[in-house]
Amino acid sequence: MLSPAQLEILNTSKQTALSANPDRLEEIAQRTKADSLSDDELLAFLQICNTLYRSGEPLIPDKAYDSVFLAELEKRHPEHPYLHSVEAEKAFSGKTVALPQRMLSTEKAYSKESIQKWLTHIEKAATELGIAPETLIFRATPKLDGFAAYDDGKILYTRGDGRKGTDITRVFERGMIVGGSGKRGLGAGEIVVNQSYFNTHLADTFENARNFQASVIKEKELEPHALEAIQNHAAVFFPFCELPDWQGSSAELTTNFEAIVAKIHTLVDYDVDGVIFEVTDERIKQYLGATRHHHRWQIAYKSNAETAQVKVLQVTPQTSRSGRVNPVAELEPTRLSGALISRATAHHYGMVKEQGIGAGTLIELTRSGMVIPKIERVITPQTPQIPEHCSSCGSNLVWDGDYLYCLNTSQCPAQIENTIEHFFRTLANNDGFGGKTIEKLHANGVNSVYAIYMLTLDQLIYMGFRSQDGKNQIAKNLLDQLERSRIEAIEDWRFLGAFGIWRMGLGNCERLLQHHRLLDIFNLTVEDIILIEGFAEKTSAAVVESLAMIKDEFMKIYRLGFNLIQTPLISGQQELTSPIAGLTIVFTGTMVHGKRDDMIKEAKRLGAKVGSSVTGKTDLLVTGTDVGVTKLNAAKENGIRVISEEEYKALLG
Ligand SMILES: NC(=O)c1ccc[n+]([C@@H]2O[C@H](COP(=O)([O-])OP(=O)(O)OC[C@H]3O[C@@H](n4cnc5c(N)ncnc54)[C@H](O)[C@@H]3O)[C@@H](O)[C@H]2O)c1
Ligand SMILES: [Zn+2]
């Protein structure tokens, strides 16, 4: 499942048609097979992965991105511009400014041989310049896996597209310090977070370090834990020139290669995803220059140790807002290509049971980007740890296929609290309703979003929302935030998404509301929803069912009066300009360009009526191959225009 955050990024970036189709996106991401994709699809997929990765919400592991999808593009089109430029990041809000110096990516090497080749290249350049190769000094530093930025002493810039970045000086105003000597103005570096700090203080709030780093940069008010991390100096901007390093000659580097690489990985307590080698002589740097993608005097070595064998300490069940119980394996903390990993998820309890995952199980772990890694393979199984009762409410758990569920929807604290938390988090126009507050409210008998909106100041104070000196500011703040959530404008699709309807992530909510007004959606049938692109039959049925279930609660909350921005309807606009609006069309035969069902949906979207047989009312008969004579004759008799699939495509333009 794509997360709400991922869908939101896709929604706002709208780069490609593929980003409007989360189901297809997920299918590609999960199969990690690139050869079946068309060129367009492959490029679109790479761009989407890149956008998500740079926004802190990676969709696929780095390894899959590099060695499956990027490699496929390289195999097909070695000269493709995407491979030869800096992968741009989605612009963060803030002023766009030209970078004082170009920021590039790095060339990558995965073997010692490639590094040796690079050394030979540098030595050749030295000889050409009349410099004795033995006198050259090489520098090795940890390749920080953080968020690249550039500090000119006044402004801190993001890398952007390598030429223009965003002014994010605000991170210094938030109290972030510079790592190393602490001096400003030292050029390129990365925003990084201390690994041990992340694991003990942030791992519960942020899915991964990349996610945290991106959040530090955003304009939005900082999450309290993130602010605390900055103030505790656990998150810093570290200039590359200040990094601890190894320096030596080419001969020393070749002789002690493995030891140097191992040593560099231990020099900092930040996520590291390789070693950067560079030559220090400025004359050679100048002489070699750069491609549009990387400096020729620098190279990144990435070892392939991206998998590790790890022991499971225990499997912890977590009940989600839908009642599904997810198995989370707590692991012996293990360093995997730079990151310290202490938790992994198994796909579902079916897998836990079948493969024997419990205390003491040895598993093979693959680092998935920076996301909580998934368990790839069980090496030595143990007795599986399967819960019988919900860890939150104690009710009996039941199996549905591979999944375990707690069915106590109306009383299970985990489900209620996660549902409420999801509501406020999705609205994203309020603060204060995090896990702890909601837990406390629930402990005081408040068990729905509506009930929260009904609370009075006295009730909140009575529940203990006041400071030790008896002041009522905390309770007042909560009421203010509730008010703010209603007054501050939000898109109606976000409001709908906050109800956590099954299969209705933010992307689907927006798509639905592009075709129907918010209050009309409760009257829709499965057939109505299927017509919308991206909704298959199963999804449509689930949506109708869940909408019916939440209708009462939805209406109660809706009537509180929120400041909703209406999604513009696209069907109306498309219909007006569509060449087939108002026509009655019949499709017949086998279509070659796509499925007939899809063509029917498209035609309806463009304002046409679609008939199943040719009658006097038919305007257009569209024919594929193997067309039956009955329809053709009927068309002839009624003087109806008959066109081929090609002609129909041309008509739509
Ligand atoms: N998982 C995904 O979906 C996904 C998507 C896009 C990219 N990626 C990953 O991103 C990588 C490509 O990103 P990139 O273009 O940023 O290139 P890169 O990984 O080669 O990193 C280049 C950057 O390294 C930084 N750097 C860190 N430590 C440094 C040091 N000690 N000295 C000098 N520079 C240092 C610089 O900021 C430079 O901009 C690939 O490895 C890919 O796996 C993953
Ligand atoms: Zn429960």
By DSSP, the count of extended strands is 25
Number of domain units: 6
Radius of gyration: 29 Å
CATH top level label of the largest domain: Alpha Beta
Mean pLDDT: 87
Task: State the CATH topology of the largest domain.
Answer: D-amino Acid Aminotransferase, Chain A, domain 1
The proportion of strand residues reads 15-25%
* Molecular shape: globular
Number of helices: 26
Question: In CATH, what is the homologous superfamily of the largest domain?
Answer: DNA ligase/mRNA capping enzyme
Helical amount: 25-40%
Distance between the termini: 34 Å
Structural class: alpha+beta
Overall CATH architecture of the largest domain: 2-Layer Sandwich
The small-molecule ligands in this entry are:
nicotinamide-adenine-dinucleotide, zinc ion
Instruction: Indicate the low-confidence ranges by residue numbers.
Output: none
For the biggest sheet, the summary is: 7 strands, antiparallel
Question: Which helices and strands occur, and which strands form pairs?
Answer:
Elements: H1 4-13, H2 22-31, H3 39-54, H4 62-76, E1 96-98, E2 105-109, H5 112-128, E3 138-144, E4 147-151, E5 156-158, E6 164-166, H6 170-173, E7 177-178, E8 187-193, H7 195-202, H8 209-217, H9 224-231, E9 235-239, E10 246-248, H10 250-255, H11 257-264, E11 272-279, H12 282-288, E12 294-301, E13 307-319, E14 324-336, E15 339-345, H13 349-355, E16 362-366, E17 375-380, E18 397-400, E19 403-406, H14 413-427, H15 435-443, H16 449-453, H17 457-462, H18 473-487, E20 490-491, H19 492-497, H20 506-513, H21 526-530, H22 537-558, E21 564-565, H23 570-577, E22 584-588, H24 596-605, E23 609-611, E24 620-623, H25 629-638, E25 641-644, H26 645-652
Parallel strand pairs: 2-12, 7-9, 20-21, 22-23, 22-24, 24-25
Antiparallel strand pairs: 1-6, 3-10, 3-11, 4-5, 4-8, 8-9, 11-12, 13-14, 13-16, 14-15, 14-19, 16-17, 18-19
Bound molecules: nicotinamide-adenine-dinucleotide and zinc ion.
Domain BRCT: 575-653
InterPro entries: BRCT_dom (IPR001357), BRCT_dom_sf (IPR036420), DNA_ligase (IPR001679), DNAligase_adenylation (IPR013839), DNAligase_N (IPR013840), NA-bd_OB-fold (IPR012340), NAD_DNA_ligase_OB (IPR004150), RuvA_2-like (IPR010994)
Enzyme class: ligase
